[in-house]
TrEMBL record:
It comes from the Bacteria. Keywords: Hydrolase. Residues 1-58 form the Amidohydrolase domain. This is Amidohydrolase. GO terms for molecular function: hydrolase activity, acting on carbon-nitrogen (but not peptide) bonds. PANTHER family: IMIDAZOLONEPROPIONASE (PTHR22642), PROTEIN LONG AFTER FAR-RED 3 (PTHR22642:SF2). The gene is nfdA_2. Its EC number is 3.5.1.91. It comes from Klebsiella pneumoniae. Pfam families: Amidohydro_3. The lineage of its organism: Bacteria, Pseudomonadati, Pseudomonadota, Gammaproteobacteria, Enterobacterales.
Length: 60
């Protein structure tokens, strides 16, 4: 999994690093918005879904 900057450094920005049509879908869905909670609560976040290569590999 890459963020856009890491994908760019690896020369993979055409296929990874952001969620766009034609790119590999690698991401996780958390049970809360980590930008809307106190930073002390972020560590208590649970992963509710993980997608790798556009396929759901984990779902709770």
């Amino acid at each position: 999994m890459y963020t856009i900057n890491a994908a760019y450094q690896e020369g993979k920005e055409a296929v990874r690093g952001s969620i766009e049509v034609g790119k590999v879908a690698d991401f996780q869905v958390l049970d809360r918005d980590i930008f809307a909670v106190a930073h002390e609560e972020i560590g208590a976040s649970r992963v509710v879904m993980t997608m790798v290569g556009g396929n759901v590999v984990f779902q709770d």
